[in-house]
Amino acid sequence: MRIISGTHKSRRINAPKNLPVRPTTDMAKEGLFNILNNIVDFTELKVLDLFAGTGSISLEFASREALSVTSVDSNYRCVDFIRKISKDLGIINVNAVRADVFKFLDKPVHESYDLIFSDAPYDLDRIADIPELILNKGWIKKNAWLIIEHPRGIDFTRHMHFYQVRNYGKVYFSFFMQS
User: Fold this and answer.
1) Residue 175 · residue 164 · CB < 8 Å
2) Which of 8, 15, 40, 57 is a Cys-bridge partner for 3, taking CB atoms 3.0 to 4.6 Å apart?
3) Ramachandran quadrant class, 77 (left: phi over 0; alpha: psi -120 to 50; beta: rest)
4) CATH number assigned to the domain comprising residue 169
5) 78: domain range?
């Protein structure tokens, strides 16, 4: 994987092969961040990256100088890798948290975010529950974005906060705006 832009532009990162992840493809990530370039100011964002995996999305936000990035994953090897690569790159605005995402979201909200990205495993039964868990509990600020990466079979278009869906190969991004 590589960091596309920002202070660590073009930096290649080799994740260990034993991580149980399906990283967002570089093509899909580039498409996503091209959209985000037009709708957010990265330097003003507090980001929550759910199911962070290798940290590819977290590191991209950090490289673009987001205020802070909280990366949540249940796998200790993923969290250790995010911490290690952040330290190796001198990135101080990433906080990797080892937690089950659903238990994390079920706790009382102590901080709201400007952008939340979720890339749950495609075979996870509860992907469709994620918007409600985030949008109705105070995790996201007003006029902030929730982006869910998902496979083709999931349709969020009827959700009241749904904004748009974009497709890059087998990767779909559904955008929601908290109003």
Assistant:
1) yes
2) 8
3) alpha
4) 3.40.50.150
5) 27-122+132-178
Asked whether residue 60 is domain-assigned, the answer is: yes
Least Cα distance to 47 among 150, 145, 135, 176 occurs for 145
Q: Is 0.85 surpassed by the pTM of this model? A: yes
Say which residue the tokens 């979720």 belong to.
118
